[in-house]
Design goal:
Elements: E1 4-8, E2 20-26, H1 30-43, E3 47-50, E4 56-58, E5 63-69, E6 77-80, E7 83-87, H2 92-101, E8 104-105, H3 117-122, E9 126-127, E10 130-131, E11 136-143, E12 146-150, E13 169-176, E14 178-179, H4 182-199, E15 205-206, H5 219-225, E16 232-233, E17 236-238, E18 246-248, H6 254-272, E19 281-283
Parallel strand pairs: 2-5, 3-5, 4-19
Antiparallel strand pairs: 1-2, 6-7, 7-13, 8-14, 9-10, 11-12, 11-13, 15-18, 16-17, 17-18
């Protein structure tokens, strides 16, 4: 496994924003994960584990220590009846297509989510009425140097799980799906794709929905009703297509995004008395 010095994190996030990681590596196996942890321990480096970087805003100052990426190199997958077992680095889009090809239904909601399986479980990702908590059967993870497997106690809630709280590294998961008709499953996936294309700014760099859904409201509507559609700070802007997305117009800095987020939160709180909580995770040296 190659350790890269001073790796630009903007190349590893869908926001296309971020300074340099002191050290960076990509795991292709569980042994690589152990090796990375051992390397960080020997060098006394903090370690940050990431997937596809689809929900991250990395600081302009970068990330100190070692970044361990679990993505397409760590993505083995197998079908056992109506169960899919896969390594955590596999993309949800790829996993959803595998389910469809094997006539397994239940993953259609995840076909357009740009993250990895591990990241999706970590934050209980969801869309169009489905969430990871609906299909996760078991999770194998690494904590305190030991590999553990659980089949309950996932602690799933709105955009959270027990793994977000206990510093665990998700290695593998089993998803329980149901037998279905592959053509019907494909049709549903295409319908959800069409809705995404119509409503979301997929052609622009972003980290997906910037804010969590406040109880009783929709973040995008609150932001639009506050008159902030299209509002920009530097290279960051509220999407003209969907106000729930902050997008990178091409040259945004992390500080632009943070300033814009704070302004949105302040304006929405003043106008509607609602506090918006960020869904995007901010990492690095801020």
């Amino acid at each position: 496994m190659k350790i890269i010095q001073n790796e630009p994190m903007k190349n590893h996030t869908t926001f296309k924003i971020g300074g340099f990681a002191d050290e960076f590596c990509e795991a292709a196996s569980i042994q690589d994960v152990f090796s990375a942890l051992e390397y960080a321990k020997e060098k006394n480096l903090p370690i940050f584990v990431m997937g596809n970087g689809s929900n991250l805003l990395v600081s302009d100052k970068g990330i100190r220590g070692l970044v361990l990426k679990l993505s397409d190199k760590f993505s083995k997958c197998e079908i056992i009846g109506d169960i899919i077992r896969a390594e955590s680095g596999i993309l949800l889009s790829s996993l959803s297509k595998t389910a469809q090809k094997n006539s397994l239904t239940g993953m259609e909601f995840a076909a357009g989510i740009p993250g990895t399986l591990g990241g999706a479980i970590y934050m209980n990702a969801g869309a169009y009425g489905g969430e990871m908590k609906d299909i996760v059967k078991s999770v194998t993870y690494l904590k305190d140097g030991k590999i553990k497997k659980i089949e309950n106690g996932f602690g799933f809630g709105y955009r959270k799980s027990v793994f977000a709280d206990n510093n665990a590294i998700i290695l593998e998961a089993e998803l329980k799906l149901e037998k279905g008709n592959s053509d019907e499953i494909w049709g549903k996936m295409e319908e959800l794709k069409k809705r995404r294309v119509e409503k979301q700014p997929l052609s622009m760099a972003s980290a997906g929905s910037t804010f969590k859904r406040p109880e009783g409201y929709f973040a995008g509507k609150l932001i639009e009703d506050a008159g902030l559609k299209g509002y920009a700070v530097g290279g960051a802007a509220v999407s003209e297509k969907h106000s729930g997305f902050v997008v990178n117009k091409g040259n945004a800095k992390a500080e632009d995004v943070i300033s814009l987020i704070r302004y949105i939160q302040k304006t929405v709180k003043e106008k509607f008395g609602v506090e918006l909580e960020t869904e995007v995770k901010m990492v690095g040296e801020f």
